[in-house]
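Question: I have long wanted to understand how a fold can be written as tokens. Here is the record:
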Amino acid sequence: MVHSELQYSDIIIIGGDFNIDFTAGYAVKNYLLNFANDLSIVFVDDKLSTDISRFTFWVESTGAGGACIDHFAVSQSLYNRVMRVTIEYSGINLSDHCPVLVDV
């Protein structure tokens, strides 16, 4: 008998370029949110400071981008332990993505 239920730790932290801006009306975001719900993880974008730009991606030379497509999600059990989420804007970063930092 094959057990098909996914087994994982109660503590999950996942982050990266999900290529989805949750503020846009793309239907594909619902698939990702449903997947996260199935794993009992939540995105921590709501913990980003409201007094900063919320862009994690843009190409300065062309002006392309201007979206928040890099995200972190944590286990529901960790959500209240996330103290801060910030986006690091630095002149020395040569990538078109800005690092997202999560303090747990």
Observations:
- The two ends are 39 Å apart (CA to CA).
- The chain has one domain: 13-92+99-103.
- The chain has a mean pLDDT of 86.
- Helices lie at 28-38.
